[in-house]
Amino acid sequence: MELTYDGRGLVLGDTLVVADCHVGRGTGGELEFPVGSGADMVERFRDLVERHDPADVVLAGDLLHSFQTVPRTVETTVAGLQSACRDAGARLIVTPGNHDTMLSSVWDGPTEQEYCVGDTVVLHGHEAPEVDADRYVVGHDHPTIEIEGQRRPCYLVGADQYCGSDVVMVPSFNKLNAGVRVNTMSAGDFQSPLVTDVDRLSPVVWDEHARETKEFPPLGEFRRML
To answer: What is the pLDDT of residue 60?
Structure first.
């Protein structure tokens, strides 16, 4: 199944995947971004949904940020994500992540620990999958790559990463997440157990201005160019 990268989202056939929204980050004691970041997230999400017109949209874990509280702004943002899907006639599904301990307080829609799309399984990636698949799509680590002194969110695409299956890691959809700099990371530095051979992971960067992707060689080769 062909992959389409777009604006921190990933399209698999008629399914759109985004991960690590971390709704609520930047509120309360963690205010480090202008109030209204939730509105920005909903707007970017709505643009993705309208552009690709998916049948299903999967939020691949860590929809929420806080483990203990759910501010009113969180409910508003989650409602905005739901509204974007409802208006487009798309079904919204959540695959819970490790941060989603309060998920039931804002979400009563469908949840799947592992969501199957053909030969691909979508999950958050903080735990090993239970379902066998040819390819896994995960989030969790918030990958970024530094190129010429500038850090950019990136996808990581690797063959034979987990039990002979391919793995695609998507960047965090929340712009507040600084992410991890993958340039010099080893497999042991990743939190997801699905990453086993970093040298074979190829970064893919979405260029927002050009509205296109830039694909780079596997990190084992690319590191020597950075």
So the answer is: 94
Lowest pLDDT segment from 1-10, 32-41, 62-71, 121-130: 32-41
Residue 134, beta-bridge partner list: none
CATH class, 3-225 region: alpha beta
Confidence class of residue 157 from pLDDT cuts 50, 70 and 90?
A: very high
> Contact at 8 Å (CB) between 205 and 214?
yes
DSSP string, 74-122: HHHHHHHHHHHHHHHTPEEEE---TTGGGGGGT--S-B-SSEEETTEEE
Single-letter amino acid code for the residue at 68? Q
Candidates 153, 151, 119; CA nearest to 137 is: 119
> Quick one: which of 124, 189, 67 has its CA closest to 201?
189
Q: Taking the domains of the chain in order of start, what are their residue ranges?
A: 3-225
169 has pLDDT over 80: yes
Burial of 13 (0-12, 13-18, 19+ CB in 10 A): middle
